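User: Show me sequence and structure for the first protein, then do the same for the second.

Assistant: Starting with the first protein.
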Amino acid sequence: MYKIDDVFISYNTVDDLFVPEVKPGIGWVTFVYKHLVPCLRSKLGTKDVEVFFDVEKLRGNTELNPELCRRVKAARTFVAIMSEGFIQSSWCLKETAWFYESLPQKKAKSSPNWSPVFKLDRQEIDREREVPQELLELHGLTAYKFYIKPDGVTAKELRHDHKEEAREELRAKIDDVAQDLAKFLKAVREQVNEQLKPYPPPLVAPGTGVYLAEAMLDRDRDRSYLRRELEQWGCTVFPDQPLPSDPSQIKATINEYLRSSSLSIHPLGAWYNAFESMQVELAQAHKRDRTNFSYLIWLPPQLAIQDEQQRKFIQLLENVSEPLKIALEEFKEIVSEQLISQQPKPDRQQNEQSESSDLTHVYLIYDQRDRQVAEALEDALWEALEERGVEVIIPVFEGDVTTIREHHQASLLQSQAAIIYCSDASLDWLRVKQSDLRGASGRHISKKFIYIGGSETPQKRRYRTAEAQVIHNFGSFSHECFETEVIRPMVEG
């Protein structure tokens, strides 16, 4: 049976010329490939990901390679590294044409209702420039911009041979691409009944629309991050396709998106842009006309505004609203709280009756220092809950910080009950985990317990909170205490 690639990467070799100062043999496209693959595997939750990256093995010097043609046409997605070199490459034109030829068959079988073509602009490409016939459809797609405009005018490519800050920005862009590729591939695999790691339960009701305003390039990375978070929460994020190029149609299109949204988000940067201003004005008009709509304006706290017109625009906004000048992570929490507050409130009586029957996942949270004793708690939970079909989730400690954090956040989203166990871990660690639980309130976790063990100290003895039931079990672990104080209340309500 022929191999089917999940991703086919098409590029011109001039974009992959290696830079000796970085590492011999590692070019720009190779750098993207080497970071894209592990990112994609992590987001799909499986190593079973096939990414075709031709290093001149199939292209060679031949006019046409049947195997290359077959691989392109069979691939589930097509990633084009767009550049002047790509536009002028006969191989890139062929690969693009082959993939588009196969699209009708893909759509008739198992593809989702959005494009499997992902365009990565390594350089700024003029949307109005003429391109070969084979690239007309590709050229019209919205691109992932792998360049920045620090001064708002001049485009600078994100290079892997520059300092670490530039490489981090490049990795963040690669993560954006991996996020959308994973979303597409999950939909494809679900339609052909392939086994995948399930999504965590969404934060919002299906169909919750959010308008994420287009922004200047200095906020593009932050905007991409917000889009990823919103999509992971289950939101439908607008615009979901390129805005019309005809200025007379833009306002009507944005208004349609705003009507489909309960919230609009406006990231602002250091430079004034009339289009950003127009989007804010349209959101303000919707806020005046609709009680079920709100908008949030965000600026980084240490933003150095160089543009006098932008400074005046922000001052004007401060007179009629309150732009949030806070860290991006803090802003994300405010966005999640706003979305939760807009969700329909469940019937209280029905909610109370269904709390016990809805228990499917329990998250046992502990620090690596408490791992040995925590295993006894885990065993007790499995013993009591396995017959009820309840899954016990525990932390992971292997992998990088991002992987560990993503698992923690997904576990919070998936669970209806959570237990924080603290023995040798510090109370500062406990407060951080309690804060995570607080952020999860309003989602799915209705039963929260803090189980404090180990050696008794005055600080541990006095630890209390109204946000969770606190149980003290100093000295040796007591199975009876854990069952009486945690398991029974959790199961019986």
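Switching to the second protein now.
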Amino acid sequence: MERTIRMKKGYSALCLALAAAMAASVGVSAASAVTKDDFSDYKKAENWTVDNYAPQDFDYAEGRLYLAVGPDGFRANRDDEAKAKSYAMQGRRLKCERPSSTSWSATIRLNVESTWYGARDDKEVKQRLPELDNKRIVDNKKKVVFGVQLVGESGSRITFEPAISLVKGGDGVPMFNYANPEERLGWTASVKPEQPVEDKQTDVSADENWKTLNITCQGSKITYYIDGQQIGSCTLDEPAYPEYMSVSMQNFDRSDVSIWDDCCLYDGAYKEA
């Protein structure tokens, strides 16, 4: 993928706006971004290390992150030690600078564009599956996860990882879920993002549908937000610090890509206005 890098003028303004909002709600000392990547400098990709299993591509282009998977990386095509279901997600993680307290927020933007809706019927799938209508559900799936790996105040690793996932299943409609240790399956289904609709008169594109994912911690309470709206919360056994922020995508034995932007860890609990 061509690595054309375009600095986004709006990113600095966004950071200032976020900082101002945080300062108003939790104090000036909590307004700083301690770890961030706006994906405008491909050299920073070196700061992201493999998490679970390496994606096929982790490319910075046009000021965005393109995380891609493909058939070569599907579990059945790997070495035996990496075929387990626990390796289903492929991604990378970014080491976090430690915030001043256990009050912090991790955010990222995800483009929930047109490929997140409806069944796939592209040429590649038709060639592999001539009987597409009978296997539409199989090739309809898509899943990404934004998570934060935690440590306690003593520095010991916390097993639970707060995370927000976007999952598209057989019905072709994506659903945001949040990690919840109190749930039997570990996840709570939550909210369906609004489908983008092409509108040439207003310049609205079905390929631009950005959603801001926010994981906020206040002591031992984790709260999840999508575009500033709370979708759920859970409570940890102890106060926690972020150690890594991670992005990943599940491989369904076909080529697919997810598009991300503006990954940032803030010192202080923050909810986007």
